[in-house]
Amino acid sequence: MPKRVRIHRAAWDIMAEHARAAYPREGCGGMWGRDADNEVLVLHAVALPNRLAEQHPRRYEVDPEHLLRADQAARDRGYRLAGIFHSHPDAPAHFSLTDLRNCCPWYLYVVLSVRGGTVTEARCWKPTPNASSASETVVSVFD
Q: pTM surpassing 0.85?
């Protein structure tokens, strides 16, 4: 597990804007990056459609086909799909039991709390290999 995750400001701006635009529903997307000295550098982010936005405003699901395309696009540009970001409208940026049940444990997860249309908090989580729990990882934004 990386000791920390650093998100480039341009990637962060994409993530935050998508979370704000999706509000009051959950927004989601992919994070492209590279591994470096016990940390993950997130260098780009892509918004992805939430298949559950209309039926369940407090849930998200990424179409597997969109996820595969995002993964391939990342690799084509020399990155890897390092993780998934999603928002929690008017709720804390914790990794919920629903998030844990539906996670892919090889990804990092950044959860953005959006309150009243404003991103107020972001936290990063890494599930265990069997997805029985998740540990918080330090996350920061860099220029």
A: yes
